[in-house]
Amino acid sequence: MTAQVLPHDRVGTGEHAVLAVHGWLGDRTSFAPLHPHLDRSAFSYVFADLRGYGEAVDVRGEHTVSEAADDVLATADALGLREFSLLGHSMGGMVAQHVLLRAPERVRRIVGVSPVPASGVPFDEQGWELFSGAAERPGNRRAIIDLTSGNRLPGAWLDAVVRRSVERTDTRAFRRILDSWAKTDIHQEIDGNPVPVLVCAGAHDPALSPEVMTATWMRWYPNAELEVFADAGHYPPDEVPLALVARVESFLSA
Questions:
Q1: pTM of this prediction?
Q2: CATH code (residue 162)
Q3: Fewer CB within 10 Å, N or C, the chain?
Q4: Percent of the chain with pLDDT over 70
Q5: Are 246 and 111 in contact (CB under 8 A)?
C-alpha cells in the first residue's frame, strides 16, 4: 500500500528536526503535556498521527509498524527533512527502529520513551487476553494503563486517558497493530547499530521496566544511554514532562 503523509503538528522552527511517534494507547495529543516546555528555537518537532489514530482514524491500511515507518518517512519527505531524530513512546519506539532500518543515513539520534524493544514483547496467556481484548473493552485499556503506571495514579487521569484512547482510535486498526508491535522481532537487524540512543524508562513500569531496557536496547545499541525516572511509570510525558524534556533535549543537543 502506498505510503501516506500523516496528519501532524509542527512545533518549533529549529534546525534539528525531531519526528515524534505516539504509543499504542494514544494519538499525537498524548505528547501535548510536553509542548509548553520545548525549545522551539533549537528544534522543530513533528507530532504525527499514525493510521487509525487521531486525525488519521479513518485512513485505511495494513496497520503494521512497517507501514507506519514508511508513513513517517513519507511525512519527513513532504516536509523536506533530509535528516532528523526520532522520538518514540512505547509502540512508537518500535516504529522508530523500523525507520532506522529503512533510512539509517537520515537518522541523527533516537529517543525511546518506555519503548518497545526490537524483539517485540512476549506475553503470557493472561497478559495477551488483557491486551488483545482492549480493542473492544475500555475496561481492559484502563487496567493496562493502571498496571503499567504502577497502580499509583489518580482515577480521574486513568479515565481521561482511556476516554482519549477510545475516542481517537479505530478499533480494527488498534487491534491489528498490536500483533505487529508485540510479535515483530528485528533485533538481529539492529544489533550493533551505532546510532546514538537515549532510552527513558519509568521506575514504576512493570512491563517495559529499566531491567527490560537493560536486557534489550542497552545490549543491542552500543551508543545507548539509559535514563530512569524515579517518579514515572509507562507515561513520562504525563508524569514527568519537565524532567523528560530536559533530558531529551540535552541528549539531542549533544
A1: 0.97
A2: 3.40.50.1820
A3: C
A4: 100
A5: no
Element (H, E) at 143: helix 138-148
| pLDDT for 210 | 98
Q: Using DSSP, state whether 64 is helix, strand or coil.
A: coil
Report whether 26 contacts 49 (CB < 8 A): no
Tell me which residue range forms the domain holding 37. 8-253
CB-CB contact of 19 with 109 (8 Å):
no
**Residue 2 domain flag:** no
DSSP string, 27-48: -GGGGGGGGGGS-TTTEEEEEE
d(CA 85, CA 96): 9
Backbone angles phi, psi at 140, to 5 degrees: -65, -40
Q: Are 131 and 101 in contact (CB under 8 A)?
A: no
Query: What grid cell was written down for 33?
Result: 503535556
Return all residues near 154 (Cβ < 8 A) that are at least 6 apart.
none
User: Rounded distance, CA 96 to CA 21, Å?
Assistant: 7
